[in-house]
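Risk register update: the risk of archive-format incompatibility is retired. Evidence:
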Amino acid sequence: MLNSNQVQNEDPERDPLALSDAALRLAGHDVTDEHVRQLGREVAAGALSAGEAIARVRPASLK
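Archived output:
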């Protein structure tokens, strides 16, 4: 369930993560964690800074 401040991708043809997904796949990587992908959508939409997204990912990855 999405909370009210989460950004949804309403048009799969214009996925804000499509370019970054393609670049990561070419480098042999793939981001599958939905929390991290949601943060990426929020950064792409301008709702969250990249620094804030990184700060939110770091504590979660250290658990």
